[in-house]
Write the structure tokens for this entry.
Amino acid sequence: MAQVLRRLDNLKPTTHPDLLVGIHGSDDAGVFRLSDSVALVQTVDFFTPIVDEADDWGRIAAANALSDVYAMGGRPLTALQLVGWPRDILPFELLGDVLEAAAEVLEQAGVTIVGGHSIDDPEPKFGLAVTGLVDPEQMTTNRGARPGDAIVLTKPLGTGLIATGIKRGIVDKETRDGAVAIMVALNDTAATAARAAHATAVTDVTGFGLLGHLREMLHGVGAEIESTSIPVLPGARVLATERVIPGGSKRNKADALTFSDLDSVDSATATIVTDAQTSGGLLIAMDPSEVDGFVEAVPGSVAIGSFVAEPEGRVVVR
């Protein structure tokens, strides 16, 4: 695996005069300029079921795929559906539930389904390729945070822990429903508020967890996080304490130790801040003077720390 990763790191990135955001910046989506005032925003995301109910899986997958466009400051327009389905094992009626539920979320977002592709696959998978538009002058990326900027998180953490608990059959309905509600919620309002707050950098929190995605924002800055300010889903801390931890979160935690100081927090908190999220919130850098207005516009959002000049490239969690 190490040899494969080294080869991927050495792949030559595609370049083009109108490619404003490509793969080299580890950003949320690609951005390609069509004119001085219009650029395409393109992203793709799909995954295996994280809940037992087909309709909720479809809703979560749709919200998750749209999030990358919102993180770039864009407006999603169209979507292509991606399906892997074990046709000889699971009935197509279940797939219909997935697609119909996803379509509901896309309609809510004003997104038109224009097609898709399916394959016979031993493990079910579903997701979307989404295309949107953005004004290049209003585009937000994961670069641009300044020392002194506040760090704002718009959704609570813990979806990875709870999804693992669901798979093990140890999560109650209230905890499960709370996590699903968070994952289905769109990041459109937060994206609009981020533009109004003149956000200097934005990303969304997904598979690499809070610290992994925060690391992608550390271009010329470091970060300090106040752990007691971080919103956490009900039930997630108990699961972290009981070590009901997904494999992706364990890998995230091991990686975070290479660029983060976690000595001041307990093991459960260290797990939560590295928990692999699905359809998580936006992580936003903004001037501290903008925080109150943003929090008022986006209920549930919280300032969890600040960007600092030193140590560059590192995160301190207190």
In short: The chain has two domains: 2-138, 150-317. The CA atoms of residues 146 and 307 lie 7 Å apart. Confidence is low (pLDDT under 50) at residues 1-6.
